[in-house]
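Quick log. Single chain, no ligands specified.
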Amino acid sequence: MIHEVAGGSITFELHNQIGTIEFFHPQSNSLPGKLLEELAQVIHGAGNDDRVKVIILRSAGEKAFCAGASFDELVAIKTEAEGLQFFSGFAKVINAMRKCPKFIIGRIHGKCVGGGVGVAASVDYAIATDKADVKLSELAVGIGPFVVGPAVERKLGTSAFSTLSIDAASFRNAEWARRKGLFAEVHDSVENMDEAINKLAAALAHSSPEAMAEMKKIFWKGTEHWDELLQQRAAISGRLVLSEFTKNAIAKFKAKSS
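-> predicted structure:
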């Protein structure tokens, strides 16, 4: 099943009780608001589908896993309400993964930037390649990793989260991310990563759904207030994105990448 939206797509496939969700956008798998909304809905649907025992979340292509927020949409935001609506998209995806009663395995094949780090942090078990460098770039454009922050801090701890947030211009390599807890495994090739993912997914597909659902509740204990928290954080980003600093910084980033 393919959902085409906002110049990209969300694909869902079910095979041997394993549900695979793939997102794609031609701009380094960045995530426009409508694509975020659709991704949250597909995750929610897979979580409530009795045929699905475990979920694999991946992105398309061979380069970036996810470049985070869409710069085109960020520069188009004109009001705080529009800013809140856009950043709420990331909140919806994170909360959909948090509430999903199935384990979500993340296939992190390449670089994660900004919101992409938040997506990687919100899966239950991330398996990456050694090309999966990570960067929280938000401060460099005058905002901050407010919405994804709780998910990243939950996985990495306050110290590593602070390191990524403050040094917003630098990538940390995949091995650093593994040591800090973002990735469970790092492999030296896509083939080895996929072999590990398929092996784990097959094992989980034959595990007790009830036991896994109860385990997931324990793993996410203490996050029950995130519906409200992430909306509050989205409002902060939505306000800051209107600043002249942010508009100028994003224009410079776009000029560099074009």
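The two ends are 33 Å apart (CA to CA).
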